[in-house]
Amino acid sequence: MARNIVIDTDPGIDDAVAIMASALNNDLNILGISVVAGNVDVDKATSNTLRILGFLEKKDIPVYKGAHRPLLGERIDASDIHGDDGLGNIDLKIPRDLKPMETSAPQFLINIAKEYPKDITLVTLGPLTNLAVAILMDSEFIDNINSIVSMAGAYGLTPYGKGNITPKAEFNVYTDPLAAKIVFSSETEKYLIGLDITQKPDALLNEDDMNMLRDSGKNGKLIHNMLKTLFYASGGAVPLHDPHTIIYLIKPEIYKFRRYFIDVEIYGENTYGEIVVDDREKVPEWLKQGFPSYICIDVDGEEFKKELFNTIL
Fold first, then answer.
1. The pLDDT of residue 232 is above 90
2. Are 269 and 168 in contact (CB under 8 A)?
């Protein structure tokens, strides 16, 4: 039986690739996609979600527009990375019959969790604002969720666990650290995949990968076209952060997790948005600081790319 998932996202090039991988895998059943401001504003992110679903002819997956700004701080975006449109400035139209649903994203999350109690995996690819708002709106919401799989954070647990917006902060957490703190402190199982493994060298797309995508039909060409400007600007190697969440659900054996207690810094002038990991080995859990989560500490990068390509192409 297919696993029921809900995706919360802010497309974003790598978000788009993750949506493609999930929509094209028969072992995953997407109950809906909620959209949040992040890589681009929430209107563009919603349009991008519809653009990708239209391209895939997956018009039956409902899309819900959510938070237009973070709970804490001013909204920032990553259009300098993802292009003005969020998808590498490609020419991809929204089918006329595709529109977002009228229900807000947080309300949709609450409703779908009640409809499928303990039977949904929430997959988050962007800032955690929508989830945090749902938690604040409904005290039963998080109890109805089976687990959360997030692309979020830099943990400093591998040589690659460095920040991509400050020296130690990752974009999705930095853009709304209060929302991340609310979600990470919730009492549900959380599997957090961060820059510690998404920036691992064998998981990066290289020139051979890009050439293969270019020559591999319409799905490959779309990914190649979204990525090509960023790829060459990055010096010939680029990470695909968000698809790791989907490939983890499809092929969990290539990922390694370890349980840690973590917290999010929401005040520091120089540490704003950083995740603090209590990695003290000889301290009992009742003395550790923060909230328990499973942090990804390793991946077989070549297997990640192989499974991703097999799913999408």
1. no
2. no
Structure tokens given for 91? 């020419």
3-state secondary structure of 65: strand
Domain CATH number, residue 28? 3.90.245.10
3-class secondary structure, 294:
strand
DSSP for 123-179, please give it. Answer: EE-S-SHHHHHHHHH-TTTGGG--EEEEE----SSSTT---SSSSS--HHHHT-HHH
Q: Is 68 a residue of the active site?
A: no
d(CA 311, CA 193): 20
Tell me the C-alpha distance between 122 and 112, whole Å: 11
Per the listing, tokens 């709970």 go with 71
Length of the chain: 313
Q: What residue numbers bound the domain in which 263 lies? A: 3-312
Report the DSSP beta bridge partners of residue 147: 121, 189
pLDDT digits (tens, 9 = 90+) for 35-65: 999 999 999 999 999 999 999 999 999 999 9
Q: Cβ–Cβ contacts within 10 Å for residue 260, how many?
A: 21
Of the residues 68, 82, 224, 241, only one is catalytic, namely: 241
Cβ atoms < 10 Å from Cβ of 85 = 18
Please state the domain count of the chain: 1
Helix (H, G, I), strand (E, B) or coil at 204: coil
* DSSP conformation class of 101: B
Count other C-beta atoms under 10 Å from residue 139's C-beta: 8
Contact 212, 309 (CB under 8 A): yes
Residues 6+ apart with CB under 8 A from 53: 19, 23, 33, 59, 61, 63, 98
